[in-house]
Every structure is written in structure tokens, then in C-alpha cells.
Amino acid sequence: MRIDILTIFPDMFRGPFDESIVKRAVDGGLVSIHLHDIRQWAKDRHKTVDDYPFGGGPGMVMKPDVVFAATESVLDLAPQREPVILLTPAGRRLAHDTVVDLARNERLVLLCGHYEGFDARVHEHLATDEISIGDYVLSGGELAAMVLVDAVVRHIPGALGSPQSAAEESFAGGLLEAPHYTRPPEFRDWSVPEALVSGNHQEVAKWRRRQNLLLTARRRPDLLASLEVTAEEREWLALQMGEQ
Ligand code: 9D3
After folding, report:
1. Assigned domain for 160 exists
2. Structural domain boundaries enclosing 184
3. The pLDDT value given to residue 169
4. What angle do CA 69, 23, 136 make, to 5 degrees?
5. Protein residue with least CA distance to atom 4, ligand 1
6. What is the DSSP-derived secondary structure letter of residue 225?
7. What is the pLDDT of residue 19?
8. 86 and 136 inside one domain
């Protein structure tokens, strides 16, 4: 996969991309990430990328001529042949399904905005998709693009060490993950649950499944709604929830 990122702050990406899974995937040739400074396509000697909003109001708007020139030169085609994803607070909220879909692309172009955002013609005639990472205000699209890249790269075959971790237990399974424990089995007054130290694989699996259900019911009942639960599990869960 090739990912092109257009931003006025390319240096913001270096730290996160030079560590972790993303770095491993880049080093392994599974993905290449190309950072482009939008300012390089500015038309004047002051390298202006933003301007005042028509009609007045606070803040500045990213200029369409500069953003189109930058994006089109990166696509080296007419726009809209490849996914051009705008990171914007008004986009659809990023979730697991979208991440999986995005990971199927040979190429992604990510456009990071700053100031109050982009001229509307960028939204209308350049972006093929608009994505937000949640309902809170960031200072720009860069951190959102990093989140998206991290999540997408994990789904490129071979990016993770063990193939089974790619299953993304938590969200692919639709449940939150059971708690994890490691040594020592006794720490202060808190011991590891009996089932986990039993050595009985079936008992471990049952305990984990029930903890998955319980944690999900308590913290994310919305996830539980669309899930298959056996009558026995449902009964156990009702009992636990009554006791909390
Ligand atoms: C007061 C109106 N604001 C819209 C909510 C203006 C505004 C705030 C912050 C415009 C742009 C931004 C910068 N944020 C992003 O570019 C952004 C973002 C976000 O703020 N939250 C969640 N996801 C994203 S993706 C890009």
C-alpha cells in the first residue's frame, strides 16, 4: 500500500511513524508513507496556504488552489481516481469497519486541514471521503491522520507479528477483551482469578468469554445489542448485572 499525506506540518508525523507497527510495516516493504508539505504548492513568495473567509467570521480557510495543486500533483492523474480522504470534524466517525475497508486500497491520499478547515470546493470536488476520529475538537487533521494510518496498517497482511493478533479480538469479535494477568499470581491482596491458573483450557475459555460479556455489558451495552449470546450466557450475565 502507498499512503500519501498532505499537511502543512509534515514533521508532526515523524515521531509516531518512526516507532512501532507502522515503522515495522514500512521497513518490511508492506507500506510506503510519503509526506508532502502543502506549502510547497503555495503560489506566492510568502507561501500562503490560507485566507480570510468570504462573508466574514473567525479563523482562516485553506485555499482551494493550493490544496488542489498539491493533491493533483501527488495523484499525478485527474483527481478522484484514488481515494482522497479528508480528515475533518464533520466527517463520518472512524470505526473498525471503515478501517478494514480502507486497508483494502492499494493507495490512500490523506488531506489534513488546519485553521477553520478547507474551502468547500475541496470537500465537494476533491475529497472522495471525509473522516473524523471522534466528537471532540483537535487542532488539525494531523493527529487524526496518524490514528487512521496506525489502525489501517495493522490490517495489511503481514504487518503484525502473529497472524492471530490481526483478528483484532476486541472489536472484530464485537466484545471488549477480558482482563489480562501475569506473574506474580499473588500481588498485595489481589490474586489472579482461579480459572486462569487452573491449567484447564476449557475453563480458561469459558472464564474469558464470560468476562468479555460482563465487561461489554457494563461499559458498552451498545455493542452487546447486535451480538449472539446463548441462553446460558444471558442468564449468567443477568445474574451478574443484578449483583453489581
Ligand atoms: C468551531 C467550528 N469547528 C468545527 C468543529 C472548527 C474546527 C475545529 C477544529 C475546524 C477544524 C478543526 C480541526 N480538526 C480537524 O481538522 C479534525 C478533527 C477533529 O477536530 N476532531 C475529530 N476528528 C478530526 S479529523 C480532523
Report:
1. no
2. 170-242
3. 43
4. 65
5. 89
6. T
7. 87
8. yes
Which residues does a 6 A CB cutoff place in the pocket of ligand 1?
87-89, 113, 116-117, 132-134, 136-138, 140-141, 144
Please tell me the distance from the alpha carbon of residue 141 to that of residue 81, in angstroms, as a whole number: 22
Ligand 1 atom closest to Cα of 116? 10
Q: Residue 179: give its domain's CATH number.
A: 1.10.1270.20
Nearest CA to ligand 1 atom 14: 140
Q: Are residues 27 and 119 in the same domain?
A: yes
In the predicted model, residues of the chain with pLDDT beneath 70 are: 77-80, 162-172
Pocket perturbation via mutation, ligand 1, pick of 62, 86, 137 by most ligand atoms within 8 A of CB = 137
Q: Could you give the CA distance from residue 87 to residue 130 in angstroms, rounded to a whole number?
A: 6
Domain count for the chain: 2
7 in the same domain as 68: yes
Same-domain pairing of 186 and 143: no
d(CA 175, CA 170): 5
